[in-house]
Amino acid sequence: MMILSVLLITATTLNQIDCRRLEDINNEVSSIPEENLSFSTGEWVKINNPPVAVMTKKVGAHMELHCEAMGSPPPTIQWYKSNRRITENEVFETNSISRNPALAQVSSRLVINYLLPRHQDVYRCVAESGTKVDTAATKLLVTDGREMNFTQLLSAKILGAHHLPRVTFWATTYMDVIGNDATLPCKFVGNPRPNVIWLDPNSKVIESSEKYSMSQEGELRIRSMEWSDMGAYVCALENSVGEDSVETFLYPMQGSK
User: Key word Nucleotide-binding present in the record (predicted)?
Assistant: First the structure.
């Protein structure tokens, strides 16, 4: 199976990933404003990797926009076309035994598999954390082609076409207090609908249990986090067209007293 390649790659690189992610966490935390270093300082959010300001593509091309944000509580990212929201990324679920909010760095992709002139517009990445909001915009220009109506799209086999699975919303880093439940998102698109698995930091496929559960949307829930849960978790997708995977580094923290 194609998914085995994900398992093998993950197994051989996991130690390097853990070391790199620990260094990344130090770098990310050092870039946070001083007033946000404590878990108990309140809500904040910042888009630290915005989408490109302008993108030009031809009709029929595949297009992806990427946006990354960091915040506490863990932010969600929505995409807007002009002023209309076009994604449905849920707010992180929380089950906190502590007054200390979690912190996360999250990523989102906006995927359009076949561009048409109607897609030309200004798209906004909107990151929300509690009541705090940050935004970044992209102007998409679509050239060299004509608009197509429903009948033309159907006859050209564009509607309903099979395409690669892609993860569209996930956390690259998730930090929360030991004892809390952690919810790691893995929203996706793909046709046919892809199969989804999660791998633990030991590269083993995670099965549903008292410790773990996974929703139909790909979300992994880890109950009562312990220090031993720290590491890189992999969400892997596969359908008949191809595969995709992302990693979330889970970092259990001691709560402030």
Answer: no
Predicted TM-score (pTM) of this structure: 0.81
pLDDT recorded at residue 95: 43
For the chain, what is the radius of gyration of the CA atoms? 19
DSSP for the chain, written as a single string: -HHHHHHHHHHHHHHHHHHHHHHHHHHHHHTS-GGGSSTTS--EEEEEEPPPSEEEEETT--EEEEEEEEEESPPEEEEEETTEE---PPPPP---SSSSPPEEEEEEEEEESS--GGG-EEEEEEEEETTEEEEEEEEEEEES-----HHHHHHTT-TT--EEEEEEEEEEEEEEETTS-EEE-EEEEEESPPEEEEE-TTSPBP--SSSEEE-TT--EEE-S--GGG-EEEEEEEE-SS-EEEEEEEEEEEPPP-
pLDDT digits (tens, 9 = 90+) for 46-91: 999 999 999 999 999 999 999 999 999 999 999 999 989 998 776 5
Residue 207 amino acid letter: E
C-alpha 81 chain-centroid distance: 19
Other C-beta atoms lying within 10 Å of the C-beta of residue 226: 11
252 CB-near residues (< 8 Å, 6+ apart): 175, 176, 177, 178, 225, 226, 227, 229, 230
Q: pLDDT tens digits, residue range 150-169?
A: 888 888 888 889 999 999 99
| Residue-range domains of the chain with CATH | 2-253 (2.60.40.10)
pLDDT given for residue 28 in this prediction: 41
